[in-house]
Amino acid sequence: MKRDIGTFDIHSDLFTNVTLHRQAGETDIIRKYHIKQLHKGSVGAMLCCIWIDPPYTADPPARMIEIMSSACAELRGAADIAEFARSSADIEQICAAGKLAILLGMEGLSGLRGQVDFLDVLYAWGVRHAMLTWNEVNVFAHGASCHEDKGLTELGVKALARMEELGMLIDVSHANERTFWDVYEHTEKPFIASHSNAYARCSHARNLKDDQIKALAQRGGVIGMNAWPEFIDAEAPSVECLADHVDHIRALVGIDHIACGFDFCDYLTSDTLDSFTSSDVVTEGLESAADIPALFAVLGARGYSDADLEKIAHGNMMRVVRTVIG
């Protein structure tokens, strides 16, 4: 069945779930647990990250290899419904064939142990995106958990330069504020915040302040709207509240810099979730990929045109992919 791209979800921890199931002896995880929800949400493309998930953070290189191995094994068995993409043309062709296009990324580079040259290996393996850190302080950068005025390290600057040379997307979603501005200073191409919202609407360290959003937009990047409740509203997160974030960003920089980076966690285990959340509150109306149409319905009711919604769904991110990756 031929499909268009539909929604391009630019942040997913799908392969964390795949790895945990495969380690328990299961196979065909995407088909069993995910593809129906993704189809219901009209998701045609995803940026799926290799994330060193708690409680596996003691040995990042080992966990990185485990997840990448599981991802490759899973895609071999799911070749009729999903496929890795390495370029914008790949994404379009895979979606046209009716399959899920998966762009592979890194949610932090702790698994590299400071070896910048290993980025070339990741690129050869198909990785086209990376964040320097997942909240933590590492040899490359200071993440969102660090509230000091410290940002990139010398290794971080070298890593950014190599990523731009290779044609990899640079992502600041888990960077602290100083790291964000250092990335802005030491890069030339568009970069993204794959799963962050507007700090002005919800003052969480993972969200971007107005001057950051303006800088990212000036560079031609996008910010992916995140469905995680703690980044939407401190008291009553909902799909309507996330639409308020979209309204704020559109008023600030226009429609061309908004994307979808939902970061759905409905399939993560309590061992993992307990490491970074202190609440069991969910986002009303937007709890899983199956609920994605609800956000577009709210935005449509607020007067967003079909062209606007298409840009948010995939058009803006595809522009960045074409520019940076090719």
From TrEMBL:
Q: Return any one Pfam family short name.
A: Peptidase_M19
- Matches recorded under PROSITE patterns: RENAL_DIPEPTIDASE_2 (PS51365)
Listed name of the protein? Renal dipeptidase family protein
Q: Which domain of life is it from?
A: Bacteria
Q: Which CDD domains match?
A: rDP_like
- Give this protein's Gene Ontology molecular function annotations: metallodipeptidase activity
What processes in GO biological process is this protein linked to? proteolysis
Enumerate the InterPro entries for this protein.
Answer: Metal_Hydrolase, Pept_M19
Q: Which Gene3D superfamilies match?
A: Metal-dependent hydrolases
